[in-house]
Fold this protein.
Amino acid sequence: MSEGLDLNLGDIDGLEQVIDREALAEVCRSFFDLFGISIRVFSRTGALLSDVHEEQAVCRYVNTLSEGRRACGTTVTEVKHIGATDGVVVHPCFTGANYRVVPIEYHSRHVGRFVIGPYLPAERTEIPKTLLTVDPNIDADKAIAALGDMPRVREETALRIAHHLRNIVDLILFSSHRAHLTSEMHVASVRESYRELAEKNDALQSAYNRLKELDQLKSNFLATVSHELRTPLTSIIGYSEMLTSGIAGDLNEEQNEFVQTIHDKGDHLLSLIASLLDASKLEQGQLTLNRVPLDAGQLIRSVVTTIIPNAKKKGIAVESQVEEGVPTVIGDSIRIHQILQNLADNALKFTTKGGTIILGARATEMMDDDGGGFGAVLMAASKPAVEFRIEDTGMGIAQDQVERIFDAFYQVDGSSTREHGGAGLGLSIVKRLIEAHGGSIRIESSVGVGTTFFVTIPEAPDTFDL
């Protein structure tokens, strides 16, 4: 820390002194998942605090060429040496992409900066000569094809992304710094006499009230997400579908590809929003289930029909194994289908070409646990149930991670270069939905062999009052 600075008086010399790195990484990851643009955060001294990126195809190709590798190294060095005091800087790359460097300030001090990019400006319509001439041995067709995989972003959108990211970083920094101050004040208060305990209790009550306010703010935020994001997002998806169908005129191949990308990303964002809302409702116990008798075999066949098109595209075989005479189950049709669909999509995501996914159902039994503890379990009678099985031959899950996969926001591959997307909410929601139906879920997995999820749901009785 620089001389003359006092953290307790609000002085900060760099982000690393007080920033919550886990919260910072989570925010950067969420922006990357939404926009597909790499984000790096540096302290004032140049220390890397968060790095969420994915190497672009054009970068991988250019780095196979000696002159291209040298040009890449020069560009990266130039971006790293842009100081926070230089203000917002848009640094061009020889590939035609841009880096946006944004300073982070706190209490009028430059404490760090974050770098967004590389991304290709959507306004760019020509292949830059600097890319095609960067190395004598460059293959123009390969370079152009690789450049086409880079995310395209309008400069005004990049500006908004930077603005929102800076605001969130400011909030994390403020919260982390204030947490430090609160901790120091708490240590000081512990040294006070018994006479000050009453004042401490008042402070704790105030903190409790603040937590209740924050919980309400979270609920209000999710409600805002539902209204302010889902409504326009539905319009975006609808208009993209109309453009694809040719209502506004024929599209060429490239235009159709862009519109399809808009539609796919809109669907993905809509599913993330729906997952957040589901998680919030389950956490607050506000999710209502419309329980009706359901045909287990029909549920499996419906999910198989849904995933077969994507499975064929990936070269994955899908099998259905439903035993004869499988009984009906009691459950919410939409939510039970959501459980099976989520697990099937998960299997599809982590299974490579040539693999197999099996969806099955069979009659079984489960313990009638009424919450009476261990003794009650020993005396409990079994009750008929249906066991759904979702099996894949994918990458598998290490045993030390199996217990954590149902935690909200946890991802088996949480690295900055992970291959598979997602917010880490799917399995957490699945587990809570199953438990809400009085069922259970277990998992068997071996790394490199595959994973099998077993979902057990109580069977419908002979008479069921709708």
